[in-house]
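User: Second chain of the day. Same drill as before.
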Amino acid sequence: MNEKWAAMFEFIQLLTQTVELHSPPEARRYNCGMGEFLARTLLGDFAECPLGDLSLWAKQSALYLNAHEEERLRKQGLDPWTGQPDPYAGTYGGS
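Assistant: Same format as last time:
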């Protein structure tokens, strides 16, 4: 584990909330805070993916965009998640 992740886990240890995910018909409980849960999901550090899809599983890093930045990129005709030209720009609702 590199220093960045080690520092993150050290900070996350201060968080004591319990994360509960509900997926019918059972509920799964993870005894960690939300920050640690997200970090462990990105690292693939659970026995299996705790989410409904694999889009964040073992990704190592993730991009966060606030609503204003996402909208700005879309208005420029770019896919906000890849930075590449959006082939669907202007073909659906919105401006």
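Strands lie at 19-23, 26-30.

User: Great, on to the next one.
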